[in-house]
Amino acid sequence: MTANISRSFQSSAAKAPRIFTSANKREVVPEELNQLFVRVGQPLRNLDKLKIALQHSFLCVTARLIGDHTLVGFVRVSGDGVFNATVWDFVVDPSIPNIEDAKAQLILRLKREIKRTLPHCAVSMFANPQDLHLLSRANFAEDEKGIQAMGLR
Question: What is the set of domains in the chain, with CATH numbers?
């Protein structure tokens, strides 16, 4: 399945902007991340809380344009580091051409980093419905028992 995502990226890479991914948490600037959240239609987040979330995340993966280093994608992982890990904030700037390719590249790097840093964790992900086909190709699967996340109110 990973090869399918990789092939998908390679087949239309000429049309897509050239991006690079990084798993260096220290490169994530909360103000810049907030700007990305706004571009994807999410509300601004409290910067103090965002800084704490980043500090307590096991890993963060960013996608940036090669030319000017503009942040165009982000995803982070939190959890206990032993049994469970949860993927949060999977976002890619909708204004870039071939957004699916950028998402695929971000997911590939995320999977590589999870395997390296959290190899024994069960991984769950909160995702938008429009990303389910891409995540399925990357070997993420909906829960067989139909369990969906619930929120405490």
Answer: 2-137 (3.40.630.30)
